[in-house]
Structure formats: structure tokens, C-alpha cells
Design a protein that fits this description.
The chain has 142 residues and is mainly α. It is 50% helix and 10% strand. It has a two-stranded antiparallel sheet with strand order 1-2. Strands 3-4 form a two-stranded antiparallel ribbon. A hairpin with a 3-residue loop joins strand 1 and strand 2. The protein starts with 11 loop residues before the first strand and ends with a strand. Keywords: Membrane, Transmembrane, Transmembrane helix.
Length: 142
Amino acid sequence: MASRAGTGSDGTAGAGGALPGRRLGLPRDGSRSVARVGRRLVGVVVDWLLATLVSQALLGGNPWTTLGVFAVLHVVGVATLGGSPGHLLLGMRVLRLAGGWPGPLRALTRTVLLCVVVPAAIWDADQRGMHDRLSGTVLVRR
């Protein structure tokens, strides 16, 4: 039986760890699987570029203003559409861990922690950043 690079035939990853999302009951790949790192990073870049463009065009481009626009894009997008523009463009969405829309409080909590950066840079075995863990959410593929 052929296996993916870095995974064993028993479905475990790399050095004996479980595949991302397995402990959460999420599929290995496809819809509702954990969004992988590359897709996440490109999504953040898309959101930051959009925030920079809005900040430059309307508000003078102050870095704090850009961060504020970035935060608004995330809070409003996650709370209403299930993802920021970058998430949606790249085929991702944010879900409550139990399933369903995250709602405004989870969206706000997740966004504040994302804007602090450090929690987003600390990941668990399921490739969820601390911002997702503390807000009870998971970023998955649509």
C-alpha cells in the first residue's frame, strides 16, 4: 500500500504523530480537513495586502490603521461569512470546533489573538494556532 511522503501506512504523520485534525474527528484531506500551512500563509498575505490597500487609499497608510483594517476584515468576515477575504478566496473557512459558524465573540477573540501574532505562531499537532485553540475554532478547507 502506497503512503504519502511523511506518513506511515498506519495513517500517522512523520515522527509518530497523528495527522492534523485526526484527534478532532476531521478528515485527512478534502472538504472539512484542516487547512494546511501554505494555504493559511497565502490567506494572511491576501488579507494584509487588502488591508494595506484600504488603509493607503482611505486612511493614509498608518501601520496601526492597516492593522485595524486587517482586524475589521477578520472579525466581520469570520462572524458573518465564516472567513476573511483571504480565507474565502483560498477555499477555507473558520468553524466552531463543535461545527457551525463561529459567531461574533469567537471571531473577535480569534482576531485579537491573531493580531498579537505570537498566539498564531504557536501551533499544536492539529496545526491549529493558539488563537484557534483559545477561541474554540478550527480553520478547514471548504
